[in-house]
Amino acid sequence: MPLLIACRNESNKSEKEIQPAGEPENYSATVVRIIDDGTKQETTISVEARSGELRREEWTEAGHARALILRPADGKSFLLDLESRTYIEVDAGSEITASAQSVGAKPARLSSVQNNEALSGPDSTALGIEHYFDDSQPPTRLETQTLPDKVVDGHQCVVIEVRATYEDGHTETTRRFIATDLFRLLLRVECESDQSNTKIITERRNVSLDVRSDLFEVPADFKRVDRVQN
After folding, report:
1. To the nearest whole percent, how much of the chain has pLDDT over 90?
2. pTM of this structure
3. Which residues contact 106 (CB under 8 A, 6 or more apart)?
4. Where are the domains of the chain?
5. Strand partners, 90
6. How many CB atoms within 10 Å of residue 191?
7. Is the dihedral of CA 177, 3, 120, 68 positive or negative?
């Protein structure tokens, strides 16, 4: 009940009182990103899972099915080739290209996924989309407002819009849809710039709070190699 009350009253809060996004301790979801430039759409799909500190993401890259397992407590991370059933052990600072985060030729770093402080909440999906457009300069002005609540994939969401104005005069607008019944999980992010016709939408779909523990283990029949296939 408190979550529903918070959702209804969110629009009456000031910018400083707006709560950041969060995450369930255990969940899995399909992440769909759509980039629409007005003439064509590009869609990428990945699957993510969390169990406490453990993380997993699956995606397809150059025709290869990949999975990345992060085990911070062990100081280990593993990149798996699901088709050849091979894997490599990866240093925490290595660059890994994941479809859910690399649209626009921006590689994801393991450290970025692990360092939740880099985001406005403990959420890695927003990392790529909110920095898709040119982020070489900080905004000179930020305006935040709450919009009417929306239902996304069956979940009631608070909607927060942030409008960033930059020194050269251009603006970028980001709308974040935060599910109040999923520990404030960020379910949808929309991003657009007045310098471009491109609109990027990233959504978490089919969220489940039941996660298998074996998702965060390298299968026993996988062979360790020096590098995965390109």
Report:
1. 60
2. 0.75
3. 128, 131, 132
4. 2-8+18-224
5. 77
6. 23
7. negative
